[in-house]
């Protein structure tokens, strides 16, 4: 049987509020970002207060492109590292709100709010931190469709009710907005005895969703066609943690989930194409939508209806030229992985041959 939610949350607060004093106290590398950081992020990090950086426990890079002037919400903002990075990127005309349930983490984030305002040269701070539970954003005073982008870094695995987190994210996003976040996933469902292990849970391992359960929950919450931006296998260097989790593989994955009600369950072919026109500062020659869509500057690329919408009905629209519409359906998008499930399939593809998957 699983622990009561209140107890689980109390233990997470103790873990991040009292037990851990810095990222060096972590027992695994689940909560450590090891990806090579873009120049813009490196430069931004240099302007962040050392105490905030010391208490960073994220597992990925959760900063999408094209943020200037936007309203961004950070779920489980901790000591505020990502909020202060985002603050620089949204600029003075934008706004960042961090929400966390642990007093000690919020205290660190709030302590340096004025210091960062000065450091960034802003006349007024564009960041706030609020105490609250990410499963109930309404309880924290956040209304419908208030944010353009939501980010979160290694937090959803710690929430007892992941379904609630996803549906709240869907509710508070504007249409065309995105939930861009990193989290830990497992290659199978984790049994209650491991979920109840305080250390494994606090270390962002045993609260992890089985990846396919996550995809289903995301779709049920209204986020059609979740896309992976990057992923890496986690290594566990601590002997006792390793022993307890033997047979389980963990991954840190960055997803982007768009709030676009017209997204379809599969990639459908309407004969559409897009051309990247450039203009995104950090991606002058190649625009990355996800781990299998890299659009080269000036090249016309056929896309499925979902990818077309992710570019045409979002803030990325101005950086692309669009060809076609949804008037004629040509079947499933080629190489999409969802194959015709009956005899005709053998004509298109010999049995047993592998198809490359586009989604
Ligand atoms: C692994 S730390 C990550 C913190 C921060 N995102 C970072 O990258 O440093 C997890 C954070 O999530 C917060 N948290 C966990 N569950 C939460 C919930 N249900 N509601 C609000 N905050 C939560 C914890 O208090 C903690 O600060």
Can you put this structure into words, describing what you see?
Helix content is 28%, strand content 21%. It has two domains: 5-258, Vaccinia Virus protein VP39 (Rossmann fold, 3-Layer(aba) Sandwich); 272-348, Ribosomal Protein L9, domain 1. The chain has 359 residues and is of the alpha/beta class. The strands form three sheets. Strands 1, 2, 3, 4, 5, 6, 7 and 8 form an eight-stranded mixed β-sheet that branches. A three-stranded antiparallel β-sheet has the order 12-9-13. A two-stranded antiparallel sheet has the order 10-11. The chain has helices at 5-19, 39-45, 50-54, 81-90, 103-111, 113-120, 162-172, 192-195, 198-202, 211-220, 239-244, 305-312, 345-348, and strands at 71-75, 95-100, 127-131, 147-153, 173-186, 209-210, 227-233, 250-258, 272-276, 286-290, 293-296, 300-303, 320-323. The longest helix is centred in the first third of the chain and has 15 residues, at 5-19. It binds S-adenosylmethionine. Residues 12, 16, 31, 56-58, 76-79, 81-82, 100-102, 105, 133-135, 153-155, 158-159, 204 line the site of S-adenosylmethionine.
């Amino acid at each position: 049987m699983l622990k009561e939610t209140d107890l689980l949350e109390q233990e997470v607060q103790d873990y991040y509020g009292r037990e851990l004093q810095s990222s060096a106290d972590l027992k695994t590398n689940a909560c450590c970002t090891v990806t090579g950081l873009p120049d813009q992020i490196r430069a931004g990090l240099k302007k962040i207060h050392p105490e905030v950086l010391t208490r960073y426990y994220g597992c990925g890079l959760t900063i999408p492109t094209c943020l200037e002037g936007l309203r961004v919400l950070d779920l489980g903002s901790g000591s505020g590292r990502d909020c202060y990075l985002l603050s620089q990127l949204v600029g003075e005309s934008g706004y960042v709100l961090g929400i966390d349930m642990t007093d000690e983490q919020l205290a660190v984030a709030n302590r340096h709010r004025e210091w960062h305002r000065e450091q960034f040269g802003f006349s007024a701070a564009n960041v706030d931190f609020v105490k609250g539970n990410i499963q109930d954003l309404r309880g924290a005073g956040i209304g419908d469709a208030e944010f353009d982008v939501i980010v979160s870094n290694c937090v959803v695995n710690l929430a007892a009710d992941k379904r609630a987190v996803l549906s709240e994210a869907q509710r508070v996003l504007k249409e065309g907005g995105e939930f861009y976040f990193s989290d830990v996933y497992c290659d199978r469902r984790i049994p209650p005895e491991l979920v109840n292990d305080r250390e494994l849970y606090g270390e962002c391992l045993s609260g992890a969703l089985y990846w396919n359960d996550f995809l289903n929950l995301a779709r049920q919450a209204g986020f059609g066609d979740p896309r992976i931006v990057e992923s890496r296998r986690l290594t566990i260097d601590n002997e006792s943690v390793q022993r307890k989790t033997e047979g389980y593989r963990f991954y840190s994955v960055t997803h982007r989930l768009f709030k676009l009600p017209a997204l379809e369950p599969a990639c459908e072919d309407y004969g559409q194409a897009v051309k990247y026109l450039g203009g995104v500062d950090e991606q002058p020659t190649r625009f990355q939508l996800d781990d299998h869509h890299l659009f080269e500057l000036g090249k016309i690329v056929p896309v499925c209806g979902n990818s077309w919408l992710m570019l045409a009905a979002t803030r990325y629209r101005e950086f692309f030229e669009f060809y076609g519409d949804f008037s004629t359906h040509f079947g499933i998008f080629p190489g999409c992985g969802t194959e015709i499930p009956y005899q005709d399939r053998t004509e298109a593809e010999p049995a047993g041959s592998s198809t490359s998957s586009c989604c």
